[in-house]
Amino acid sequence: MEKLLGTDTVKRGMAQMQKGGVIMDVVNAEQAKIAEASGAVAVMALERVPSDIRAAGGVARMADPRIVEEVIEAVSIPVMAKARIGHIVEARVLEAMGVDYIDESEVLTPADEEFHLLKSDFTVPFVCGCRDLGEAARRIGEGASMLRTKGEPGTGNIVEAVRHIRKVNAQIRKVTLMSDDELMTEAKHLGAPYDVLKEIKKLGKLPVVNFAAGGVATPADAALMMELGADGVFVGSGVFKSESPEKFASAIVQATTYYNDYDLIAKLSKELGTAMKGIDISTLKQEERMQDRGW
Amino acid sequence: MVEMRIGVLALQGAVEEHIEQIESLGAKAVPIKKPDELNSIDGLILPGGESTTMRRLIDRYHFLIPLQEFAAMQKPIFGTCAGMVLLAKEIADTESSHLGLMDIVVKRNAFGRQRESFEVQIEVAGFEERIPAVFIRAPYIDKASEKVEVLAQYEGHIVAARQGNLLVSSFHPELTSDTRFLQLFIDMVSQCNVVETVS
């Protein structure tokens, strides 16, 4: 057998190696180094963290390639970057630059309001957001090798991420217990590809790693998501919008590994300084909700 | 016979995948999150993941010396990918190493970035047929002392090796359904137990 690049095993396997870890949003080399030193398993190179994207308004696009390049050169851990939903060329450019994982992300302004990328066409693996099992299965059907909850990015409010992981896991439990003849109608209800749903039923879990994202602001938030069954955690604005990024980053990494050691999480949470200021989800206008982007 | 207990260092990485494979071969798998848990196992797997992340947690939770003592007791350790990096005495292009136990110089991300990651069938010394090998941002062994037995090479680079009680692979046997490479480690653990009982 010859050497095979970009197979499902290789793309999904990369996410499996990230399990139990924390992936941090960074906007420059200096932040990337802080993230690596704190024990992040990967960094997400961005032009702005989600809370700043909210504040800035306008169209949010793929990061300036200079930022991506600067981050790639600064660290030895994997580097991820975001492309707009459906933006084939942004994704191809990031792949050409050697980015290790692409997030087809609702945090950026969608480039296509009907179709997502056909991720199976790429050698580089993709992570996508999901709020329920239908969305998760559609993204897997398109070739996503990793999932994450959408949560509500840039809010520092964990409530939506909790809603999404509970929903996905409850729906997996339901599908797992269904008889085979009920599965097609369930696929119709969920808007899920039938074959993907069959695989989920057989495995009793998703065939790809599922991280938590969208609202993690404290070590306890990260531990909560692990407790609810996430395989790992993305922290967007939570680290570098806190009072003390080094301390928050390190404490969130430790709380993710030792998520059920409550004495330790109490200790880690002391003397951290102030977490990022959060947003109550009910104060967001409909058009400000990033989680509703994606189809 | 007492059931064999294989630990998997569970600080970060592909822990579950190793646990499932160990149990499929009839041994008891034990996730290791605290240093004192090392006392209860016969062999240890350092899984794939991010070596820098694992090292931070090894330092913060005082694992370094207990892990070195575990190796000094001649108990077998198997490092896959990041685990290989952790075991090496030297890491190319850096000044520091981690556990510093095996006489190898390891080059990190040696086959390239994720887009260059691959799977292939490779020959392993002593195996009749090739095994599937999955390389993910994988390291290889740049140099090995004569104390090291080379088990597999790919594109002219050493990708699996053994030295006494230490076994390493650049690739991830735990991501395939082929358990022959893990069986090699289980055999090392059983032999070590036999020696212990005799002496």
What does this structure look like?
The complex is a heterodimer of chains A (295) and B (199). Chain A has one domain (19-271): TIM Barrel, CATH 3.20.20. Chain A has 13 helices and nine strands. Chain A has 295 residues and is of the alpha/beta class. Helices cover 27% and strands 30% of the residues of chain B. Chain B has five helices and twelve strands. Chain B has helices at 15-24, 51-60, 64-72, 82-87, 180-198; strands at residues 5-9, 28-32, 43-46, 77-80, 88-91, 102-107, 118-122, 131-135, 140-144, 149-154, 157-163, 166-169. The longest helix of chain B is centred in the last third of the chain and has 19 residues, at 180-198. The mean pLDDT of chain B is 95. Strand 1 (4-5) of chain A pairs antiparallel with strand 7 of chain B, so a sheet runs across the interface. Chain A: This is Pyridoxal 5'-phosphate synthase subunit PdxS. Chain A: D-ribose 5-phosphate binds at residues 25, 154, 215, 236-237. Chain A: Belongs to the PdxS/SNZ family.
- Rounded to an integer, what's the Rg of chain A over CA atoms? 18 Å
- The helix/strand series of chain B, from N terminus to C terminus, equals EHEEHHEHEEEEEEEEH
Biggest chain pair contact, residues each?
Answer: A-B, 39 and 38 residues
Oligomer: heterodimer
Order of helices and strands of chain A: EHEHEHHEHEEHEHHHEHEHHH
- Please report the total strand number of chain B as a whole number: 12
The count of DSSP E runs of length 2 or more, i.e. the number of strands of chain A, is 9
Count up the domains of chain A. 1
Radius of gyration of chain B, CA atoms, in whole angstroms: 16 Å
